[in-house]
Amino acid sequence: MTAISVRHLWKEYGEQIVLEDISLEFAPRSFIALVGPSGCGKTTFLRILLSEETATRGEVLIEGQPIAREPGADRGVVFQRYSVFPHLTVLGNVLLSAEMAEAPLTGRLFGARRRQAQDEARALIEEVGLKGAEDKYPAALSGGMQQRLALAQAIMRKPKILLLDEPFGALDPGIRADIHQLMLKLWNTCEMTVVMVTHDLKEAFTLATRIIAFERRRNRPEEKARYGATIAKDIEVWPKRIAGQLKLKSTAPGRDDPAIPSGTGRDDPALKTA
Amino acid sequence: MRLINVRPDRGTALFLAVLPFALVVLAYILGSAQRLAENPDDKLLPSLPSLGNAIVKMAFTADARTGDYLLWTDTLASMERLLSALAIATIIALVIGVLVGMLPLVRALLAPFVAMVSMVPPLALLPILFIVMGLGEESKIALITIGITPYLVRDLAMRVEELPREQMIKAQTLGASTWQMMVRVVLPQILPRLMDGLRLSLGPAFLFLIAAEAIASDSGLGYRIFLVRRYLAMDVILPYVAWITLIAVAMDFGLARARRALFPWFGGAK
Questions:
Q1: Phi/psi of residue A175, each to 5°?
Q2: Going by C-beta distance under 8 Å and a sequence separation of 6 or more, which residues neighbour residue B87?
Q3: Using 50, 70 and 90 to split pLDDT, how confident is the model at A41?
Q4: pLDDT per residue over B117-165, tens digit each?
Q5: How much of chain A, in percent, has pLDDT values that exceed 70?
Q6: Residue A262 has what pLDDT?
Q7: What are phi and psi of A215, to 5 degrees?
Q8: Which of chain B's residues have a Cβ under 8 Å away from the Cβ of A79?
Q9: Per DSSP, what are the bridge partners of residue A193?
């Protein structure tokens, strides 16, 4: 049983071939990092997994079934930008997926069910480190906090697959390290397969169980249009990370690590409210 | 220091803002005094006291024939027309604008039609409206509505299309249906933009209101101005114009404040 299998997938835009004969099998609960230079089609590949684009040829199977023709609740997503809704508070953003699931007509929950969903949402908000910011609008949050919120929002719906499109690319290094820990924790505890596009190799090796490198092998001007990207490297990360059995790094530095400053992280909402 | 870097402090800014108003008033007073010195019966630029008298007569004295306070009955009649038209236009624009902006099928169906209709000069339709709907309130409300709705529809449709695509994808991955996206994602984000669109429509709305009232009416601000024009009653016309301007400015200001109060997230999210 595989979470995602991609068979002989081609993607062409008119004359331009972007992806060329990609075949991949992703194991359930794996954490896949897609890396490669700009314009190599890794984001296009992710969009196909999201059903935002369709493959020109070949097939994509999600748990053995052909992929749905439009985005759906089985596949969550976090983009680099615009992932959260600016008109909803932090709590409202996380609550939204519960409301969409249960209130087809009004898109809102009321009474006891609302309180129950709110409790769930608050727990999740605390888990991603946004406690205390429940009533703020995204515009009042830092970039890192917005991405934490986007993760919470996506996970609230319990997707089988979580797709990440350079989610931490715009964050500065300290905040990125904090959110990497959070990402590992979420992947470890939630029943989901993660596919992440990144151009940061260090990030890929920090998080993933398997790294797929896309590359255009033929890049001469006269060849460019007719040859798409293929898989250049397929690396299993060693030592193996296994979801559910991950021991997250304690805050104490290891023997070989640089000292880690203790106390609140730079991205901690506690600092914002102070 | 370059001119581009010179910023006025608060006092200077206030002075500069008041200056053009003061200059216009001053020019009026001087011009009026000069004309009245030459001809005490001059009606073109009445003195401030006679303007004051006219205001007292129109606003605070019951009309000898009808017993009405004319300025207020005129204002009421005009506002009724304007606000009904704004309400109708808003509702039509919301429904069509959101549908055109969100659904490619509706866009294909209606976008060219709306673009075409918005180019019809509304005043050219006024005779048709009078013929079809008569000279009553309906034709005036219809004129204002026709005048501003196409702009509002296109503006809203564009604002909807401007919403980041990522948001629609994200909403779908949260399991939202088209309807849910409409009521929870698009509509709430479009309302503050609608209020901005309405503010920009106020000018044209007043234009069509005055035009309709000038041509066929028995009450209203535009009606009064065009009525007293026959007597060269500048002392009435000028305060009326100032009053109309004041109403429009107040509505604009009110909409801006309401938007800020109702949609606190909007300023930061743009």
A1: -65, -35
A2: none
A3: confident
A4: 989 999 898 889 989 998 888 999 999 999 999 999 999 999 999 999 9
A5: 90
A6: 53
A7: -155, 145
A8: 166, 169-170
A9: A161
Tokens found for residue A161: 């697959």
Own/partner pairs for A35-39, CB < 8 Å, 24+ apart? Answer: A35/A198, A35/A199, A35/A201, A35/A204, A35/A211, A35/A212, A35/A213, A35/A214, A36/A199, A36/A213, A36/A214, A36/A215, A36/A229, A36/A232, A37/A199, A37/A215, A38/A199
Q: How far is B178 from chain A (nearest CA, A)?
A: 10
CA-CA-CA-CA torsion for B216, B218, B220, B224, nearest 10 degrees? 90
Residue A252 pLDDT > 60: no
Ranges of each domain in chain A: 1-74+160-171+185-243
Residues listed for chain B: 270
Is B35's pLDDT higher than 80? Answer: yes
CATH superfamily to which B59-264 belongs: MetI-like (1.10.3720.10)
Interchain CB distance below 8 Å, B177 and A104: yes
CB A152 within 8 A of CB A126: no
Fold of A1-74+160-171+185-243: Rossmann fold (3.40.50)
Q: In the predicted model, is pLDDT for residue B269 greater than 60? A: no
Contact B185 A85 (CB under 8 A): yes
Per residue in A163-189, pLDDT (tens digit) is 999 998 888 888 888 889 889 988 988
Angstrom distance (rounded) from CA A194 to CA A182: 14
Indicate the length of chain A as a whole number.
Answer: 274
Q: pTM above the 0.90 mark?
A: no
Confidence band (pLDDT; 50, 70, 90) for A271?
low
Contact A79 B180 (CB under 8 A): no
How far is Cα of residue A196 from the mean position of the Cα atoms in its chain?
Answer: 5
Backbone angles phi, psi at B64, to 5 degrees: -60, -35
Residue whose C-alpha is closest to residue A166's, from A247, A55, A82, A268: A82
The DSSP line for A55-123 is -SEEEEEETTEEPPSS--TTEEEE-SSS-S-TTS-HHHHHHHHHHHHH-TTTS---HHHHHHHHHHHHH
Residue A40: predicted pLDDT: 85
B104 touching A (Cβ < 8 Å): no
Tell me, letter by letter, the H, E, C secondary structure of B47-114.
Answer: CHHHHHHHHHHHHHCCCCCCCCCHHHHHHHHHHHHHHHHHHHHHHHHHHHHHHHHHCHHHHHHHHHHH
Closest CA to B205 of B89, B34, B124, B40: B89
Per-residue pLDDT reduced to its tens digit, A6-36: 999 999 888 888 898 899 999 999 999 999 8
Q: Give the model's pLDDT for residue A78.
A: 93
